[in-house]
Amino acid sequence: MTDHYAVVGNPVAHSVSPEIHAEFARQTGQDLDYLRLPAPRDGFKATVLKFRDEGGKGVNVTLPFKHEAWSLVTAHGGDALDAGAVNTIDFRDGKITGYNTDGIGLVTDLEQNLKFPLRGKRVLLMGAGGATYGVMGPMLAARPELLVVANRTPDKALALVAHFEKSAKLARQGVSALPYPQLGGSQFDLVINATSAGLSDAMPALPSGIFAAGALAYDMVYGKSTPFMTFAAAQGATVAGGIGMLVEQAAAAFLIWRGVRPATAPVIAMLKRES
To answer: Per the residue annotation, which of 66, 95, 121, 272 is the catalytic one?
Structure first.
């Protein structure tokens, strides 16, 4: 019997997660389908519970519901408890268990696919939403030299840093929050755009000169060249979009749901050909 999964978000029409999971299912011989499930901004809980009650086995969660998903679930697994955000929900044994695979997806893409080890690197992370909360723990576990968070609303960046205070010692020079204007004069080996600015072709307020020699600029938005990527390339940085992270976090979710981890390289290559 076919098992049913979905990605829940607003908007969600652009998501390629159904194509990814269809390929994972084909590759591993799993009998499942996976659909896009739009939810009203004030209707996330009702949408998810209706899907479960109609036989759904699990959902992925995307913007803007990752914090709300953390509160909805009845148990937290993996990185979700510390993250304060959930991107994968499993309906099993009468529980609603939440996980966060964003961080492992990002770190795997950086270190294995892009051959960019995080240890000892100076990292700037832009954004303070659910995606950023999801990646902070695994990124710090990779032991960067320092990690700076910048956000359009500085108070949210400060709250994010405070949330991960116990893990800050994993970065040799610690974790801090800075407003964009105060980044001038600093240089980073890795700059990650975890904001949704690229979806609307907007550009974070980055000053020039922040990319160190050999720096990587990584945008979590996938399938398009964003203003951030254009800006970074003009500054001499190598640029990468978020397709690899998307596929790697999906593979981690697939493993939670189905007990088997699919190969990601052919799916990443497929999506890059199609984008």
So the answer is: 66
